[in-house]
Amino acid sequence: QTPRTCASPSISPDAFSATKFDYVIIGGGTAGLALASRLADDHSVQIGVIEAGVYHPIDPLIDIPGNVGVGEGHPDLDWAFKSVPQPGLNGNQMPVPRGKMLGGSSGLNFLAWNRASSAEYDVWNQFGKGVDWSFNGFLPYFKDTTTTYQNQTNPFPGIPANETKADFDPNFVGFNGPIQSSYNNIYPDPVFPYVQSLNNLGVPTNANPDNGSASGIINSRSSLDRTRGVRSYAVEYYCRSVSQKNFKVLTNAQVTKILFSASGQSHGSYTATGVQFVSNGKTFTVKASKEVHLSAGSIQTPQLLELSGIGNATLLKSLDITTLIDLPGVGENLQDHIFAGVEYEVKPGVLTFDALHNNATYAAEQSALYNATGTGLLSTFDSTLTWLPFHFYLNSSETTTLQGIFEKVPIQNGTSQSLQHDIQRQWLQEGVVPQNQIVLHSGGQLPPINPNSSYFTAFCGILHPWAHGFVHINTTDPLAHPVIDERYFDNDFDIQAVLSCIKLLLKLQDTAPVSDIITNRTSPAVDIQSDEDLINYIKSNAMSSSHPIGTAAMAPRELGGVVDADLKVYGTTNLRVVDASIIPIIVGANPQQTIYAIGEKVCTFAVFFPEPGGFFLAL
Ligand SMILES: Cc1cc2nc3c(=O)[nH]c(=O)nc-3n(C[C@H](O)[C@H](O)[C@H](O)COP(=O)(O)OP(=O)(O)OC[C@H]3O[C@@H](n4cnc5c(N)ncnc54)[C@H](O)[C@@H]3O)c2cc1C
After folding, report:
1. What is the ipTM of this complex?
2. Ligand 1 centre distance from Cα of residue 97 (Å)
3. Of 263, 353, 367, 463, which alpha carbon lies 20 to 30 A from 319's?
4. Which CATH architecture has domain 188-220+338-462+490-541?
5. Under CATH, which number does the domain 1-152+226-333+547-619 receive?
């Protein structure tokens, strides 16, 4: 592996603090770096990014696909938050990994590169008016963010022979963006039998999930530079702009407060003038003459808003924080995908990722191959993802039962939940928008694991859970972790939707060709059979897919919205939130492509390039 050649950030906190910036961006993560790099394309404006983590020009825990997941919990890479104990998880706390590095969570994630069905974006225009957040409104930015690697085939079962060549439609995918996306070129042995068995259970393969219809089994591309076999992440945006004089990135510095004009409100709105930050125990401030952009992610964006006096006045008062803007929606509307898994032991000779741990000779060969060529099993991570509308695997009476259960979920008054409920009701009636996702992992993930055996695990989760949790501060210490409560499985719909999908995965053991490659089911244990026992199993073993969104949501202010369609915080003239927090209703996709696109899209209305050479502020 060779290090990235772009220069490391070198500005000192003193020099950063003394610089006159037009835009200050809090958080050099997924959306933050996409936004900063595009803003810096106008060389007449000064862009300053403050990131709490550091730049890793080379780090096997980030770069090597075979190490995906290993960096979680590492103090140099992960904030390692934790939820409060969850009654819906039989009292367990859920780890909440979030990338703490230049690149943010895009440096920690599982590489899956995809987007949701068009209907899922089209409804965003009901939450914010004046900017087109529909699928078509997103499309140019999905494309701008990506370089799609073309010299590959998609060999999945169920794809007609004439479509296996990766012949991408330029109307839907990009070829010049900073993030590389590619298919795997090696697949562990369970992948094709697993896809065939799902096909045999009635779930079709989808060769073109980028065009707005995501349902079916897909061979997801990965955010992976196939030429080197390494992760491609938001640092590519940093490298794109780092040599420019108008682009400064300060790392190892944590923002503790957003600062507002001392003169207070003007025409009913506050103007952000800069931020306060700490670096190596010393406190600094830095000014922004045009805008402050908050891109600290779904957990820390609401934390910083509250620390700065923007949030629920009752909560702020209880902590002796002066309320500047009473916005009760700050930190609310937290939504996340929740999963449970079924694991099968495979017959000897079936190659899975377990071979990297239980076969020293094979592991050494793969390591040598990867080091020499960037190929082999270490250059891949599982890419088999399945999007399921209920009718793909449930009969109409079972689907109707789930719809009935959904009708009874509690709706919190004064929030956007009634709008979300109407939308999900329509999705359930139409059956087009997927409701479950299945993720295949070609290896052992769930106890009990015999270190000499090999496995595959299929995780099934709910894509539009009804659980709405929160993130709030409970102290004025800006370096403390906020309180996170996702309220997983606090309603019957979420648990029943996962239960029904787990039952589909249990059918795999008797469905060829999976039945030909397995010896037995190891999790849930074979004596766990009744719905009651399966629900208990799900609650005790559930895992988050680490997709928290919605904690500074775009929605009308009277419905608990925090930002308008321009992503500007209500009651401010120039503070925008640009990250996963603004997503109004959770998308049925792995969200990184959407979040990069949010960063890309904001530049079109935070600034406006009318004609080549021309430039003015639109707002
Ligand atoms: C383990 C894991 C697996 C995932 N797998 C996938 C996947 O396979 N595919 C997919 O599409 N998505 C996946 N995701 C989700 C996806 O990566 C995230 O949703 C996305 O990266 C979030 O982007 P963001 O810009 O909102 O926040 P982030 O990328 O997290 O950026 C926030 C940045 O702000 C910094 N920051 C926070 N507070 C401060 C502060 N006070 N001062 C300065 N800096 C601060 C953080 O250090 C971070 O760099 C996964 C996430 C995780 C954690």
Report:
1. 1.00
2. 8
3. 263
4. 2-Layer Sandwich (3.30)
5. 3.50.50.60
